[in-house]
Amino acid sequence: MTETHDLRIRPATEADLPAIVEMLADDPLGATRESPDDLAPYVAALKRLSEDPNQHVVVAVRGERVVGTLQLTFVPGLSRMGATRSIIEGVRVHSDERGSGLGTRFIEWAIDRSRQEGCQLVQLTSDVTRTDAHRFYERLGFTASHVGFKFQL
To answer: Any residues with CB less than 8 A from the CB of 2 and at least 6 apart, and which?
Structure first.
């Protein structure tokens, strides 16, 4: 757990899921793919993630209120001389907290945690339509170095 003034970053629990899913659904993309009214799939997913030592779903809490979430995954690999990399996914900050510095603190936390795990690379993807997010990540030192592809199943 990490604490900064009134902000704590800690592992997500099942009790946090309503707030997490609400944040996931709180934008045009998430609104089409998330279901805040049906938490069962999220409960099952959090259980699977919690059982995997390379998966870390965390929340940012201010007071008693969940105000952000992200997933940090550690991926051991062969390339880059056997380097481990981390992947930051599902970054969401509650609409009331945007512009407060929480997003920066969250990404700094993920980078620090990646260093502690011996990662040599931190990567993330961002939907092509999220131009504000792209500027945010670039301001933090990330570069748009690759083209990503997805195959919907």
So the answer is: 8, 9, 10, 109
Identify the pLDDT of residue 5. 61
What is the DSSP secondary structure assignment for residue 64, as one 8-state letter?
T
Tell me how far the alpha carbon of residue 25 is from its chain's centroid.
Answer: 14
Amino acid at 84: T
| pLDDT tens-place string over residues 10-31 | 999 999 999 999 999 998 888 8
pLDDT for residue 31: 85
Q: Which two tokens stand for residue 81?
A: 């001389």
Are 98 and 91 spatial neighbours (Cβ–Cβ below 8 Å)? Answer: no
Closest to 71 in 3D by CA, of 54, 95, 47: 54
The residue whose two tokens read 């659904």 is 25
Strand intervals (E) in the chain: 2-4, 7-11, 55-62, 65-76, 84-93, 121-124
Low-confidence ranges of the chain (pLDDT < 70): 1-5
Structure tokens belonging to residue 79 = 């390339």
